[in-house]
Each structure stands twice: as C-alpha cells, then as structure tokens.
Amino acid sequence: MEEQAKTTGCVKPEGFTGRRVIQLLEKSGLEIREDEFVSLTARKLNGNPFALLVAIIISQNTTDKAAIKAYKRLNEMLGGRLTPEKIVELGQERIEEPLRPAGLSRQKARWIYEAARAIIDNGGERILTEKPPDELRQILLKIPGIGKKTVDVFMSQVRGEQVFAVDTHARRIAKRWCLEDTNNYDRISKAFSEFFKGEDLVKAHKLVIALGRKWCIARKPKCKECPLREICPYAVQHSSSTTKQEKNIGLSRK
Ligand code: SF4
Fold first, then answer.
1. Mean pLDDT of the chain
2. In the chain, which residues fall in CATH 1.10.1670.10?
3. Fold adopted by 11-32+164-253
4. pLDDT digits (tens, 9 = 90+) for 5-48
5. Which of 79, 85, 101, 193 could be cross-linked to 70 through a Cys-Cys bond (beta carbons 3.0 to 4.6 Å apart)?
6. Residue 236 C-alpha to ligand 1 middle, in angstroms?
7. Within 13 Å of residue 64, how many CA atoms lie on the same side as its CB?
C-alpha cells in the first residue's frame, strides 16, 4: 500500500494549490536567472548533456555561485569541450584543481571521471539522450557520487521527465507547506509531484528553489515580503492576526 505524505499538526488554507502557487510566484517576477543556476550556465556555455551532468555533480554540497565558478574553470581548462572523452584523456588528478572553489574537489573529480568512463563504456554520450529512461537511471545510479537527486535533476532538465528533484530548499519548503515532514527523499518528491499535479514539474522545481533562495530562506522566512503569504500554511499559522475563529472559517485540516 502506498504511504500518504506525512504531516502533523498542519492546516492548509483554502486556495493553497500548486497552480495558485505557480501563478503567484510567476506574477511576482521571481526570476530563474541563468547566472544563479549552474546547470543553466552549463546549458549556455556547452549545451551537451554530459556537461549538464558534470554541472549537477559539481553543485553538490555547495552554492550555485561556487559551483558556477568551478564549472567555468573546468570548462576553460578543457577549451570548452566538456565531453567524457576529454575528461578521461585529462585524468582524475588534473581536473581536481579547477574544481576547488566548489569544495570536495578530490571526490568530485573522481565522480566526474567515473561518470565519464561509465558513459564511454556504455556507448558514449548519446546514451544520455537515447537510452530508455529506466536503463539510464540504473547506469547513472551505479556511478559513485551520483544519487537520486542528481539523477532526477538530470532527467528532468535533459530528458524533460516530470519528476520533482528534492534539494535542501525543497525539503525545508515541504515542511512549511505541510506537504511532508520527514526527510525521506522519495516521500518529499512524491508530495511535491502530487501538489503540482497537472503543472510543469520542471518549472515548479525551479520556482521552488528560487523561492527558497529569495524569501523562504532557512533561518527565518521573509513571509511579509513573500507573494504566497496569504495562502501559505506556515505564514497563515504564524501570523499573529490569525485567530482560532479565522482558522475555523478559512482553513481546512488536511
Ligand atoms: S510565506 Fe513564508 S513560509 Fe510561506 S513560502 Fe513564503 S517565505 Fe516561505
């Protein structure tokens, strides 16, 4: 039996739907800027699927700003040819130095090198766009350093798969939105997919990340400035003007 998304003590205001959230965020002018997402930088600079995979690997456990810096340094070293063959030709040790700004450079150099080798061994870069999604997932998940999140981001951005990749922003927002209060990757991804059902999940994912960076920040969310403040479960529950009576009139328990 499928598990329901777990939330405790949460109330969801009426009108809090995935569609409304997207509408409000888009109307607010929340930008998904190319220079703030390493995968968009990779798309602009290189455009090939392996380059995007490399960008996603570099972005692990660091900020996009640091990841973009490291990505550009690596790309420069490779003369703009970020291919599996070029990575293998250079070798793991030589690609370590340009990755330093993103941290974990030794591990990331290894993961990128292993990814390049696995892709070559399985038929070359074309497998990233041509292999059936399930088979490609299996290949990628066997590469050290590549987990579900990396694969989901890659599959959604390169293959257009309707999956919701879960990062640190999504985890936090899932709790504030009463979608899922555990840290279980699959459950959070499923909860967002259900919440945004019928919407473009790739776009929804980018908007959630942009929201998490601009207003729904970790330490203290900027609810007063956030375009979702009237419908967001967290904002409504934490609003001092929200009386019990108002809750009974305007809110429904999940
Ligand atoms: S209203 Fe507050 S808690 Fe809700 S999404 Fe916006 S910043 Fe986050």
1. 87
2. 11-32+164-253
3. Endonuclease Iii, domain 2 (1.10.1670)
4. 456 667 788 889 999 999 999 999 887 776 677 877 887 888 79
5. 101
6. 9
7. 17
Burial 84-101 (b: 16+ CB within 10 A, else e): bebbeebebeebbebbbb
Question: What is the distance in A from the centroid of ligand 1 to the CA of 151?
Answer: 28
Q: Evaluate if pTM is beyond 0.85.
A: no
Residues of the chain with CATH 1.10.340.30: 47-158
Site of tokens 């959230």: 21
| Protein residue with its CA nearest to atom 2 in ligand 1 | 223
